[in-house]
Write a structure and sequence with these properties.
Length: 502
């Protein structure tokens, strides 16, 4: 297509011609009328964040998303590109995607004069119209807006003041599209002033050039709320010019949280023909770790606990199950609660510790979170169940050594010695005649649940035994000696020890 054909298509209404804000607004209106999903894959924001974004777009506002890490801010901003037209006519070869009917750069204006209606048109897909920049203190005006390109000038034999020697920054390159700046407060004050001028005047001036470019850009931002509201971090006129401030949040319900994690985590694998299953109670434990972490005083509230914690934890938990199944040559990989402990490396890096937490160490804090998460979940699953028989067995002096490396059949054989234990798999909705890896995982859940609720205890060697409190009541043989070294207490079944590979 050339300029002449485009002009006729615009005149007959075949190709729309409007500003980017108007374009996004019209497309949004159409989606609302059709009752279509506006932000596919964004869960839990239907009644909070999304209506506010819709209002901002309908108002044709630039807006900022304020939220902690892992609250889908970048994802929402990226999905705004989905509200653009599928393709947009631009001057072929123009760095700033000029409107062929009204080019603003010197090169395109010259070409339009020379070539007239024969000026070739290119079609820009919507994804190419979204530009994103992570703000850092070293971002310069040249990066954002543009600069003189002396090499370009020398090659073309031009004066430095010639507009054709300009090197365009990110913002002009986002012309007729969306420009997103993440972590806005990290931008130097001088650059914020530059941005303000652009938002205020609607055009940019590149240092050393007499020209102004009236750009057509929707600007969107993201920031940590405390950074954004801290005095002196954002220049007031810039803040004043941003149309809407929209607060994001972590999932408000367990249901939403589970749905997000299930959508994002890679669990549906097929490693060597092996089926990987993560039972619902394991998923709930993993999700509960994030909820516990977000209210833990030992963890820094300001930086938050990203939804990426349960997502990576779920993936790593599934991998531990996969590894066990491969090594033990089992037919299916079923994740256990003890696999969540093995997934510690996917948890410890996902939060910042307060001083009290630092004293204990990330590993200790993470283990404690898992235990509390298991307690919450198991408490729900075991309501009304009679756990006494199993607790009694331990209090009579029984011990059981099983861990995340135990093959399923092995685990079940040893658990079979504990009266009433295997039957409790029904608490997790599993019956004894189901495949061994499923039953073993459910039994592991019961043991870890009893341990988390402090009904029984567990040694560092992963041996389950009576809790210290009950051993102190005289039912156990020698509580003191047991506390010092449970392995040497006489008369106990030491169970099989975990194998160590040095
Ligand atoms: Zn141009």
């Amino acid at each position: 297509m050339n300029l002449g054909e485009l002009r006729r298509a615009v005149e007959t209404g075949g190709v729309p011609r409007r500003s980017v804000r108007e374009e996004i607004r019209e497309n949004l209106i159409r989606r609302l009328q059709a009752n279509d999903t506006i932000f596919p894959g964004i869960v839990g924001y239907d009644d909070t964040v999304i209506p506010q974004i819709v209002n901002a777009i309908l108002s044709r506002h630039d807006f900022i998303l304020l939220g902690l890490r892992g609250q889908a801010k970048s994802r929402i901003l990226r999905s705004l590109a989905g509200l653009l037209d599928e393709r947009l006519p631009v001057v072929a070869g123009c760095e700033i995607h000029d409107d062929p009917l009204a080019p603003i750069c010197a090169s395109c204006r010259a070409r339009a004069r020379e070539e007239g209606d024969a000026l070739p048109i290119a079609w820009l897909p919507r994804d190419a119209r979204y530009v994103e920049k992570l703000a850092t203190p070293d971002v310069t005006i040249a990066d954002m807006v543009g600069d003189i390109d002396p090499i370009k000038a020398a090659r073309a034999g031009r004066q430095l003041s010639d507009e054709l020697t300009m090197h365009y920054g990110l913002l002009p390159r986002a012309n007729r599209g969306i420009f997103a700046i993440n972590e806005l407060p990290d931008l130097a004050g001088k650059i914020q002033v530059g941005l303000f001028n652009i938002l205020q005047e609607g055009d940019v001036q590149i240092k050393g050039y007499p020209v102004r470019l009236p750009l057509d850009v929707l600007m969107v931002f993201s920031a940590n709320p405390e950074d954004y509201t801290a005095r002196g971090k954002i220049i007031t006129p810039l803040k004043d010019r941003i149309g809407s401030e929209i607060r994001t949040h972590y999932p408000r319900t367990r249901h939403h949280a589970l749905a997000i994690t299930a959508q994002e985590a890679w669990v549906d694998r097929n490693g060597g023909g092996l089926e990987t299953i993560v039972p619902a109670y394991v998923r709930e434990v993993i999700e509960e770790i994030a909820f516990e972490a977000r209210r833990d005083q030992k963890i820094d509230k300001r930086s938050g606990v990203s939804q990426r914690l349960p997502i990576s934890c779920l993936e790593n938990t599934a991998s531990n199950a996969e590894r066990r199944a491969l090594v033990c040559q089992e037919e299916m990989a079923v994740a256990r609660v003890t696999d969540v402990y093995a997934a510690l490396p996917s948890i410890t890096g996902k939060f910042e510790l307060e001083y009290e937490g630092e004293l204990k160490g990330a590993d200790h804090v993470a283990r404690d979170l898992i235990r509390r998460a298991v307690a919450n979940v198991f408490d729900g699953y075991s309501q009304g169940a009679d756990l006494r028989q199993v607790i009694d067995w331990f209090e009579m002096g029984g011990t059981l050594q099983v861990d995340d490396t135990s093959p399923s059949a092995d685990l079940l054989a040893r658990a079979g010695e504990v009266q009433g234990l295997v039957a409790l798999a029904s608490l997790a909705g599993v019956s004894a005649d189901q495949p061994a890896p499923l039953v073993a995982a459910a039994v592991d859940f019961v043991l870890e649940g009893l341990f988390a609720l402090k009904k029984i205890s567990r040694s560092d060697e992963w041996t389950y035994q009576a809790s210290p409190e009950s051993r102190g009541t005289g039912r156990a043989l020698d509580a003191e000696a047991l506390l010092e070294d449970p392995r040497v207490v006489p008369g106990r079944n030491p169970g099989r020890k975990k194998k160590y590979y040095n």
